[in-house]
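Entry:
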Amino acid sequence: MTTDPPSKRGRSEAVTHDANEVIELVFDVGMESEEQAYNPDMCHQLFGEEELIQGHPEPAITLKLSAAFHALLEVDSGGKKEPGATDVVGPFKEAFSDALFTDEEAFQRAAAQEGSLDVAALGTPVSIPGDWAPGCAGGELSLQLLASSIASATPQLKALHARLQPLLLFYIDAASMIDQEDDSWDLILALAETPGGQRVAGFATLYSFFGWPDSKRMRLSQVFVIPAFQKRGVGRALLAAATVHAQAAGALDMTCEDPTEDLQRLRDRLDVQRARHAPWLLEAARRVSGLAPGATTALEGKGEVGEGQAAFHTTIPADITKRARQELCLCKQQAQRVWEVLLYEFLLDAKGQDGADRAMQQAIRQKLSTAISAAETGSKGKVTQETESGFVLQKRRRRDAGLGVGGRPETPSVPVEEGSAEAKAAAVEQAVEARLDAIASVAQRRGSTLA
């Protein structure tokens, strides 16, 4: 921050503050013991790429949100604003529209009229199987999960969703607002029971699109958990409810476009836990990993996987992919991720961590190196990225996201433009370790119960 008085600064200089440090969002979460004020993770869609506020000596910007997410903006510049100072109010008005107040009395009147949430008007209850994931129903929170088509939602739900959407700008990179009249969108809402009454703890949106030949698929588009409710199982519950909803809607599978690392990890844990309750899938993974007596092994050679031995092949068989889609609503890429974790779990029991790690590292390294070798032509400025169709070339992304979707996933991503062999090898090894870390963070030893 520049601290010299205006008279000592050049004409092009101005006192400058990081917008994320001077903005506070204050939530009414119905729990006095909980911290309610939070700095945003990002605000570049309001204040530009550099996320700076200029010309305000000591700014304090507070966005107070009522239980139903009406918003009161309070701006204190901390002294006389300089000529050309950043317009603070304008970007908030554009984002929040009619839900934004700058007059406290008007805000209090709107908040007083909210009343308690009418659950019956907010969607159809979604029930999550109890064995899907520990804490999936909200952990220590009492959660209610509701699903609704946004286009045909009640006026109360549409208004609530419209007030919730601008919050994504502070927590999800490249977030965009949903067209509420597009009947392809569904909303999953998580309500938490608190001492102050029911509060919205988070929400997710799903987009329906064509699934060949005559069906539909669903894409998880946005997942957002109110900061005070994070790390309490709400995100996991939203993912589980989205999966239940997609299956009930007859979707072929559920994809998730460009998830953040946190979201992908949650999704992997949920889907692996679901897979552990599918005996046919466990038996297939066990057979392929070479653990079943008399089965054809995917490990070439004998004994522990060691240096110089052939690679361990982890590509999921096509028939398993098809059944995982039909019965578990897993898209091809997610089925592959789940498959890798199951293989690793069986390898842990058979060969211990060192042997399992070496087997998986060789498989990932071979798969990635092959993709890079095939993709080097015309690859300047791009990376290889694993998708539903295998490894493809994609442009590098500007930044990671803080929550939800819109960030960079954990799948291997390696620069393939011209460079030294040493640099390429180092990048491959970094991607291999990142993928193995992602697998290991989800896996658990199976023990003798599945022997």
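The chain is about 35% helix and 20% strand.
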